[in-house]
Design brief:
The complex is a heterodimer of chains A (247) and B (1127).
Chain A lengths: L8 E13 L4 E13 L3 E5 L6 H9 L6 E6 L2 E2 L5 H11 E5 L10 H11 L4 H14 L15 H13 L5 E5 L7 H18 L2 E5 L3 H5 L3 E6 L2 E7 H10 L4
Parallel strand pairs in A: 3-8, 3-9, 6-7, 7-8
Antiparallel strand pairs in A: 1-2, 1-4, 4-5, 9-10
Helix pairs in contact in A: 3-4, 3-5, 4-5, 5-6
Chain B lengths: L2 E2 L2 E2 H25 L1 H10 L4 H40 L4 E5 L13 E2 H10 L6 E16 L4 E11 L5 H4 L4 E4 L7 E5 H7 L6 E6 L2 E11 L17 E5 H8 L4 E2 L1 E6 L10 H11 L5 E4 L1 H55 L4 H41 L14 H27 L3 H5 L15 H25 L4 H7 L4 H10 L6 H4 L8 H6 L4 H11 L10 H9 L1 H10 L8 H23 L2 H21 L4 H17 L2 H8 L7 H20 L1 H11 L7 H13 L1 H32 L10 E5 L8 H7 L7 E9 L6 E3 L14 E3 L2 E4 L1 H6 L4 E4 L6 H10 L3 E4 L1 H5 L24 E6 L6 E10 L10 E4 H7 L5 E8 L5 H11 L3 E5 H44 L1 H9 L4 H36 L15 H27 L3 H6 L2
Parallel strand pairs in B: 6-11, 8-10, 19-24, 21-23
Antiparallel strand pairs in B: 1-2, 3-13, 3-14, 4-12, 5-6, 5-9, 5-13, 7-10, 8-11, 9-10, 15-25, 15-26, 16-19, 16-25, 17-18, 17-22, 20-23, 22-23
Helix pairs in contact in B: 1-2, 1-11, 2-10, 3-9, 3-10, 3-11, 3-35, 9-10, 9-11, 9-25, 9-28, 9-35, 10-11, 10-35, 13-18, 13-19, 13-21, 14-15, 18-20, 19-20, 21-22, 22-23, 22-25, 23-25, 25-28, 25-37, 26-27, 27-37, 28-35, 28-37, 28-38, 35-37, 35-38, 37-38
The chains are: A alpha/beta (247), B alpha+beta (1127).
């Protein structure tokens, strides 16, 4: 188990509010969420559709603005950062894994992986070496020149994982990373994420519907209607999954 | 404007309105049959307002261009016809001495008053002729002692005031009254302005040195009755005095110069009787030395022709923009189809048929179309106003008119209808294309999978493609069957399809004969149409296919397919029985059809000596080779690049290289359009098929750009993925840039050639003197007038004959074919004194054998009688813009060291012929001010003593201001009209620059099309790539970098088009100029106006980036979280 109570808190969200204004209707997506995560911790966020899981992830990662509250990442309050600084901060400190991969179809796998390095100012030659190394890590060392449409779903998600890790971020945000995969491939990807978490010791926040995925995390947060309603540790989640016959 | 491309505008209007109504009926039928799908289409229009605005903007351009072209034509026609009616008033015809048939000295070419009385008596009660009147005139200097201003050449008309009411009552009097008698003079507005004259002023008419006082009784508008005859001449100072007083001043007897005729009816109504009156008066003049000139009718006819020329010019050049507009419309609808794909997939899933999608898409498209056609007409009117303002500001429209914008309902209607029809056709093609979607891919918005064609790369598939194309084209070609009468033997031959006509053609054609014999019958053969009319048999096949489409096929062997293509009845059966579910190689079929058409066009071009058809045929055959190679999957990049390169090689090769093979072919400025379209298409193919080589090079060049690298990387990657969009946009921009660059470059070379500083021949001032008051010695006269003549380095005298004053025997005249009146053709003859011949700086372009230097030529002319040099117009001929040249041309092309040869000049006064020997061709730069056959003054005076126009050419020392000195000469000598060459050249260059600006502005409309395309693509890309933008932002792309990436992407595409247009335009201009393709007369050093071209390119690039700025900004502002969540 990686989590240790002495590890520093890397993510701290206090009383986070977020409302979407759709013109005629206001949707209160987050109604005062508090959350902390320590270095190296893997936290799953679960809940029914529309409960605010992805919104919380977006707000914590700085992809979306919050209306009230504070979000502190590695001691820095990102809720008050200007967009350009926040973008740079994201490039250096964070990696993202999305359900729909979000790879650039016009670039090869290696080019997709090296993008975060290039935007961080890494020299092209070094960026390519590190990208190939990251692809090697996820088992795609020989697929660097292939474009996304030449890869399977699992391979694409591996490229996404490589892209998320290539910059050695301190936090990985994963939104339904296995949502678009069959169960065998989903397991492979989760094995990869867990292995990398153990090796690299990043904090990983993961949104999922799948109890099996949540059971692989150190802690699971349950949300409903824009609020955190419960937290379970890994043992509880494993037991729950086992009783549901999914583990 | 009554005609366009030789077709009556009434017919064009009727056909286009009928087609437009047909389109409306089709749409109404769709709406009636399936209102829900129709409404769905219409309701899509207001969904994205910015996009709708952009689409309407893009679609309207074709209408704008057509409206502007038609309205310009109408404006020229209406302005000119109104000017003619205003100027001529009641005068419809006049009677003059017929010098052509009755040679006589100039002073004897008059009409006695008795002739006027005879005609007046004979036609006194004629219902078509209202009256006759005699008119005399002289060109005289007029001096105003009060203002000390003078006018050296005022045309003074003289007539009997008691008889003139019919002709003068309608003339507008601007001041005073229209009263003649005694020494009263009515002056026209131009003379009043030149002299700053007022009512009551005493003016002096100078006749042969004698000054006669006249008193201004009235100032009136211009009319022949106030000394203004020239239609289309802006400045015509003149006046009128009573005929008795005129005779007293000039000492002339009771002779008249002309008899003017007024037809029954007002200024406009009288014109309708012109031909009737001509039929009556021509016999009445039989046996007399006089002829009737239908002045008003001729003038109106000329301006109509001129306005057609204007319209045709703008329509031809507008075709570039319209072609770009067609590509844009197609692109817009490809984009729209992509956007609507999920909705269309859903509609198909719940039971909508393909035709429903087509109908819905058509409803949406036609909504945009109608809106854009209406706005296009309004915008076109605006563009016309702008163009007319530019033309007027140049001071010379080429017709000497101050244009007043004018529209005809017919012109606007045709523009509107053409816009609607063109857009409808393109939308239909795009709709059919869009409706062919895979339902699952469409709903999930995945890339469309292309069905595998098992017949790809097989001859069978190729032939089947051809068979189907033939069937599809059948109904179009039915038109030809109905249009031409076909001989019975031919009808029989048609039964064996394409084989029959070709046998007929091969047997009947005289293609293998030498060119002269080939053209013996002198008409364009119609057989190319006949060779393809066998194809309508396939129309029946199309119907059978339609009726039997659910039948399952039986397979046909390859030999049967061949027979089916060659023999229509078999083709009908095969087409009907083919497997409808199997993909058809349409491209291959179209290619083969293009090849057939290409061969036909080549043959037609050879038979008619038409470069347009020949070149179009060659290009089509080459492109067919491309589709052939593609069908057989032969290295697509290599084959398409090679074929495109061959097309370019063909167009770049000068026609002189082909002449030994195919003879000399004729082409006009429509070749410019054809070459542009074909070359840009070939260039675009080369670029798009090699983008994956070119783009990484660009990306590699930018790999050292630090933090910009990611932006460059993504910017370079996207154009590669969307080759169709990229290619279409490059083609649009390239097409317009090609036209702009080529026209600007060629124009600049013409300006340098004809309007260069050496056009003055080394002279600084030209002085024309009044015919009745000539100057024997300019320097002495100036001295006597107290002018300091020390700046004069040389003053040379020359005499000119006007057009038609002397004539030259046409060496190409054929008494059996040509009109006897055309045996002698006019051209000015310039007789220059020894000073002129020795001082002028014109070089001799080609010297005859025996003349080692230019000086030898000039000295020989000065020393010897009857030697001449000709200019480039006489040497090479060429049309005058409105048809074949009616000017004298020699029968040979001169080269250095040519053998001297003779030309024959006829004096119309005596009918005597004189032979002159040509010993050189003067440099082309003489064309602007010395367009004449040049000989010595002695020669001219000995062979044509009547040459009355005297000119002096003055060379000043270096420090003297020639403009000021010209004014000094004018004010010192009342009979002199002096102009500095410096000013004349400046004026000409300004007029040329104004016209260039007008053209560039007009072509700029096309550039707007290309730029709009970039905008359309960029806006669409923002929508399509929303999620990708979100991801880029998530992993650390700054907003600015996202925006920069979009800007760079558009910049790269725009730059490709711009550079292609620039390179092709400049290189093509060089070929045209250097090899004398653009004009036989053009030659000399080729100049590239780089600054002007870079400004054009810079504006194009800047405008492209500006257009992309807005979508780029929108991309940079995409909300990251939302973009990542939703597609």
């Amino acid at each position: 188990m990686n989590e240790n109570i002495t590890d520093p808190i890397v993510i701290e969200a206090i009383d986070v509010h977020k409302t979407y204004n759709t013109g005629t209707v206001q949707v209160h997506a987050l109604k005062g969420v508090d959350l902390r995560a320590r270095k190296g911790e893997m936290v799953a966020i679960m809940g029914p559709s529309g409960c605010g899981k992805t919104t919380l992830l977006n707000c914590l990662s700085g992809l979306d603005e919050i209306d009230a509250g504070t979000v502190t990442i590695a001691g820095t309050d990102i809720s008050k950062m200007a967009d350009d600084r926040k973008t740079d901060f994201r490039a250096r400190q964070m990696g993202f894994i999305f359900q729909t991969y979000n790879l650039l179809p016009v670039l090869s796998a290696a080019e997709n992986v090296e993008l975060p390095l290039i935007v961080s100012g890494v020299r092209p030659r070094e960026a390519r070496q590190r990208a190939m190394a990251a692809l090697e890590t996820v088992g795609l060392g020989d697929r660097g020149n292939q474009r996304p449409n030449q890869l399977s779903g699992g391979q694409r998600q591996r490229v996404t994982v490589a892209r998320a890790l290539v910059n050695r971020p301190s936090i990985i945000w994963a939104d339904e990373p296995t949502g678009a995969l069959d169960s065998a491939t989903a397991k492979e990807i989760m094995d990869l994420i867990v292995d990398l978490n153990e090796q690299e010791h990043q904090t990983t926040i993961l949104v999922t519907h799948d109890p099996k995925v949540a059971a692989r995390c150190h802690r699971t947060i349950h949300m409903a209607d824009g609020l955190i309603v419960r937290e379970d540790d890994q043992a509880t989640m494993q037991a729950t999954a086992a009783s549901a016959g999914v583990l | 404007m009554d005609e366009l491309f030789g077709l009556s505008m009434n017919i064009i209007a009727a056909v286009s309105v009928a087609l437009t109504l047909g389109i409306f009926v089709i749409l109404a039928w769709f709406a009636f049959r399936n209102p829900v799908m129709f409404k769905q289409g219409l309701r899509n229009i207001p969904r994205r307002k910015t996009q709708t605005a952009l689409i309407i903007f893009g679609l309207m351009l074709a209408t704008v261009i057509m409206t502007a072209a038609f309205s310009t034509g109408d404006t020229v026609a209406n302005t000119a016809t109104n000017d003619i009616y205003d100027l001529l008033g009641e005068i419809d015809e006049y009677i003059q001495w017929d010098a052509e048939s009755n040679p006589a000295p100039e002073d004897q070419r008059v009409i006695p008053e008795s002739e006027l009385q005879r005609l007046s008596g004979e036609f006194a009660d004629d219902p078509d002729i209202e009256g006759f009147m005699g008119l005399s005139f002289e060109n005289l200097p007029v001096v105003s002692p009060r203002t000390n201003l003078n006018e050296s050449n005022a045309l003074i008309s003289a007539y009997d005031p008691a008889e003139s009411g019919l002709f003068t009552d309608g003339i507008k009097v601007l001041a005073g009254e229209f009263r003649l008698g005694g020494n009263a003079i009515i002056i026209n507005e131009d003379l009043a302005e030149a002299l700053d004259a007022r009512i009551g002023d005493t003016l002096e008419l100078v006749f042969e040195g004698e000054r006669v006082a006249v008193v201004v009784s009235g100032i009136a508008e211009k009319s022949p009755m106030t000394g203004a005859f020239d239609i289309g001449s802006a400045d015509q100072p003149g006046g009128a005095i009573a005929v008795d007083f005129f005779r007293e001043v000039t000492g002339r007897s009771d002779s008249l110069d002309i008899i003017i005729v007024s037809n029954t009816g007002d200024a406009r109504g009288g014109l309708d009787r012109s031909s009737v009156v001509e039929d009556k008066l021509t016999p009445a003049l039989e046996g007399t030395p006089y002829e009737l000139v239908t002045l008003k009718d001729d003038g109106i006819r000329f301006v109509k022709l001129a306005s057609s020329f204007f319209t045709t010019f703008f329509v031809v050049f507008g075709l570039f923009s319209i072609a770009a507009g067609v590509l844009l419309i197609f692109l817009i609808f490809i984009m729209l189809a992509a956007e609507r794909k999920p909705e269309m997939g859903m509609a198909r899933a719940i039971g909508a048929r393909r035709r429903h999608l087509v109908e819905s898409f058509l409803a949406e498209g036609m909504g945009y179309d109608l809106g854009s056609a209406i706005i296009g007409v309004i915008a076109g009117i605006g563009v016309t106003y702008a163009m007319v303002a530019i033309v007027n500001s140049t001071g010379d429209s080429g017709l000497g008119l101050n244009l007043r914008v004018s529209f005809t309902l017919r012109g606007l209607l045709v523009s509107f209808c053409i816009g609607v029809i063109a857009t409808f056709l393109i939308i239909t093609v795009a709709s059919v294309r869009a409706s062919r979607l895979n339902i699952v891919s469409a709903i999930r918005d995945l890339p469309e999978t292309k069905p595998i064609n098992p017949e790809q790369a097989t001859w069978f598939g190729y032939l089947r493609g051809l068979l189907n194309v033939m069937a599809a084209f059948g109904f179009i070609l039915l038109f030809f069957v109905l249009s031409f009468r076909v001989s019975p033997i031919f009808q029989l031959l048609m039964l064996v399809g394409l084989v029959g006509p070709f046998i007929y053609v091969l047997r009947g054609t005289n293609f293998y004969l030498p060119r002269e014999e080939r053209l013996a019958n002198g008409r364009v053969p119609l057989w190319p149409f006949f060779t393809i009319i066998g194809i309508p048999f396939y129309l029946l096949a199309l119907l059978v296919v339609r009726l039997t489409r659910d039948r399952r096929p039986s397979s046909a062997p390859l030999w049967l397919m061949v027979v089916a293509i060659l023999v229509p009845p078999v083709g009908i059966v095969v087409a009907a029985l083919q497997d409808r579910e199997r993909p058809i190689a349409w491209g291959a079929g179209m290619g083969a059809f293009g090849a057939i058409l290409g061969v036909v066009l080549i043959q037609w071009g050879l038979d008619s000596d038409g470069a347009f058809f020949f070149s179009a045929g060659v290009s089509l055959v080459l492109l067919w080779a491309g589709t052939l190679l593609r069908h057989f999957r032969i290295a697509e990049r290599a084959s398409m690049t090679t074929v495109s390169a061959l097309v370019l090689v063909y167009w770049y090769s000068p026609s002189s290289w082909w002449e030994p093979l195919i003879g000399e072919l004729n082409g006009d400025f429509e070749m410019f359009f054809l070459s542009g379209i074909t070359m840009v298409a070939a260039g675009t193919f080369i670029i798009t098929y090699n983008l994956d080589i070119l783009v990484p090079i660009a990306a590699r060049l930018g790999s050292r750009a630090g933090r910009l690298v990611p932006a460059i990387k993504t910017a370079a990657a996207y154009p590669l993925m969307a080759r169709v969009r990229t290619g279409l946009t490059i083609a649009m921009i390239g097409l317009i840039m090609f036209a702009l660059i080529t026209f600007s470059t060629i124009n600049e070379n013409f300006v340098q050639l004809f309007l260069g500083d050496d056009a003055d021949g080394g002279w600084d001032v030209q002085v024309f003197t009044n015919d009745n008051n000539q100057v024997d010695d300019l320097a002495a006269s100036l001295d006597a007038a107290g002018v300091d003549t020390s700046p004069i380095v040389a003053a040379a005298e020359a005499r000119w004959t006007g057009f038609g004053e002397v004539e030259f025997k046409d060496p190409n005249f054929d008494p059996d074919k040509d009109d006897p009146e055309d045996e002698y053709l006019g051209y000015p003859l310039l007789g220059a004194d020894t000073t002129w011949l020795e001082t002028n700086t014109f070089s001799i372009k080609f010297r005859a054998a025996g003349y080692a230097t230019d000086e030898d030529v000039w000295q020989a002319i000065a020393a010897n009688q009857r030697l001449v040099v000709i200019d480039q117009q006489v040497a090479l001929g060429g049309g005058d813009g409105f048809g074949p040249s009616s000017l004298f041309t020699v029968d040979r092309e001169l080269t250095e060291g040519f053998e001297p040869f003779t030309i024959t000049m006829r004096d119309p006064g005596t009918g005597a012929d004189t032979e002159l020997t040509v010993i050189g061709q003067v440099d082309d730069s003489s064309a602007l001010f010395f367009s004449a056959i040049i000989t010595s003054l002695d020669t001219l005076e000995s062979i044509y003593p009547d040459a009355s126009t005297q000119a002096w050419y003055v060379k000043l020392d270096g420090g003297t201001d020639s403009r000021a000195y010209a004014l000094t000469i004018e004010s010192a000598l009342f009979q002199a009209s002096a102009e500095s060459f410096d000013k004349l050249i400046d004026d000409q260059q300004a007029a040329s620059a104004g016209f260039l600006l007008l053209f560039q502005g007009f072509m700029g409309l096309g550039l707007v099309v290309g730029i709009a395309a970039l905008g359309v693509i960029a806006f669409r890309a923002v929508v399509e790539r929303r999620q990708q933008i979100g991801m880029l932002r998530a992993i650390g792309y700054q907003r600015s970098m996202v925006a920069l990436s979009f800007l760079l992407e558009s910049g790269l595409v725009a730059l490709s088009g711009i550079l292609m247009g620039l390179l092709m335009g400049v290189s093509f201009s060089w070929v045209l100029w250097t090899f004398g393709e653009v004009d036989d007369q053009a030659s000399g050093t080729f100049i590239v106006p780089w600054v002007q071209l870079f400004v054009i390119c810079g504006i194009a690039l800047l405008a492209s980036l500006l257009m992309t700025y807005f979508p780029a900004r929108a991309a940079s502002r995409v909300a990251v979280a939302e973009a990542l969540r939703y597609e």
